[in-house]
Amino acid sequence: MDKLETIFALQKKLDDKIIEERQIDKNVADWVLGITVAMDSEIEEIRQLLPWKWWKNEKEIDMEELRKEVIDLWHFLPSLSMKVGLTAEDVYNMYMKKNQENHDRQDGKSSKEGYAVKATESALK
């Protein structure tokens, strides 16, 4: 079992435990909505650790806390993936395909509009 499969298996075990102990009965739409709201909350917690307020004195980033919040997001990603029917292998395969597509777009090898890199004047000289 690879690392991503291990993460999925551990998250499934945790999700199953929570669902059973709390007697949760939701449909896919409710799960997707709930998980994405939880992810929004985690993203907000990440944002609050960053010095984005230009009207305040900058603060040092607490990297340990920032890493913990990022890992909180990683708990929700496998849950969301599994709720929509994706396995760890599906995630890997679809990621690889989409990653190549994103590179192709950046390299001008895509018919999708809006990704062409415009040459700057200094690059033309």
UniProtKB/TrEMBL annotation:
This is dUTPase. Residues 99-125 are annotated as: Disordered. It comes from the Bacteria. InterPro entries: dUTPase/dCTP_pyrophosphatase. It comes from Ectobacillus funiculus. Residues 99-112 have a biased composition (Basic and acidic residues).
